[in-house]
Amino acid sequence: MAVSKSKKIDILENLKENIKNAKSIAFTENNWLTVEEITNLRKSLREVNSSITLVKKTLIKIAFKEVYNVEIDDSILPGQIAVVCSNDDAVSALWKVNEFMKGFAKNPKIVWAWSYFEWSIKDSKETAIIAAIPSREVLLGRLVWSMMSPVSALARFFDAAAKKLTDEGKANLWSAPSVKKVEPKVEEKIEEVKVETPVETTPEVKTEEVKTEEAPVETTPEVKVEEVTTEIIEDKEEVVA
After folding, report:
1. Calpha distance 156→159 (Å, rounded)
2. 20 to 30 A from 200, CA-CA: which of 50, 54, 180, 209?
3. CA–CA gap between residue 156 and residue 173 (Å, rounded)
4. Residue 198: which residues within 8 A CB-CB, separation 6 or more?
5. Are 137 and 50 spatial neighbours (Cβ–Cβ below 8 Å)?
6. What is the CATH T-level fold of the domain 5-133, as seen in this structure?
7. In this structure, are residues 77 and 54 in contact, taking their beta carbons and an 8 Å threshold?
8. Which whole-number Å values give the CA distances from 238 to 24, 42, 231, 232, 234, in the listed order?
9. Max CA separation in the chain (angstroms)
10. Which residues contact 151 (CB under 8 A, 6 or more apart)?
11. SS (H, E, C) 33-92
């Protein structure tokens, strides 16, 4: 269907406005994309304040010449070209389109052609490398997720504990049976060392035995009875005679 001259002027002005306000501009070569697939891609790009527009190659060349004073060679405009404008973040739109392309890895329906990034033209390989960089929002989301991961794990633990208590008919954790503390087993037995407290002893004092000398007992001289008797008898005989 032929497009009127006035319509072309409107499309050109709109394209110039888009590329002027964009942080980065990329171009895709599209083959056999359905209307539904293009619609889904446009919805995804609107999430990051970006857009994709199918435009005639002649209008792209004119728009770049008037806005950036850059001459576009026909060799970098193969097939059907779509213009991707990223307005908030330089890589957000490229990353979105790159994720969309992964769905057609076996049968590519959309591939990178080139891009105008940081005031210079990048070929398809350089554009693909840039498009693989996650956007600022994605990086922040990953950072928040990594920070919240321990908190989420703790929350899941408490949810599971609460569910278990409910299933067991217990009101709270305090009513749950206490867990018996298991003392770790020690393989080696530690021998008890008995320390005997020394008993203080009084040093033995040797006392010298004191020998008391017994006083001599006065004894009466023994008088032999026989001898006295004999003497008496002899005296008597002398008298008689």
Report:
1. 5
2. 209
3. 16
4. none
5. no
6. Alpha-Beta Plaits (3.30.70)
7. no
8. 186, 188, 11, 10, 6
9. 217
10. none
11. CCHHHHHHHHHHHHCCCEEEEECCHHHHHHHHHHHHCCCCCHHHCCCEEEEEEECCCCCH
Q: Distance between CA atoms of 220 and 140, rounded to whole angstroms?
A: 138
The closest alpha carbon to 99, from 41, 29, 51, belongs to: 41
Distance CA 234, CA 223 (A): 18
Per residue in 39-49, pLDDT (tens digit) is 999 999 999 99
Q: What are phi and psi of 55, to 5 degrees?
A: -135, 150
Q: In whole angstroms, what is the distance from residue 84 CA to residue 101 CA? A: 13
CA distance 45 to 40: 9
- Size of the chain in residues: 241
Neighbouring residues of 33: CB distance < 8 A, sequence distance ≥ 6: 109, 110
pTM of the model: 0.57
Sign of CA dihedral 39, 45, 46, 51: negative
* 110-135: pLDDT as tens digits: 999 999 998 899 999 999 999 998 86
Report phi then psi at 105, rounded to 5.
-65, -40
Tokens representing residue 111 in the block = 């591939």
CB-based contact 94:13 (threshold 8 Å) = no
Q: Are 114 and 28 in contact (CB under 8 A)?
A: no
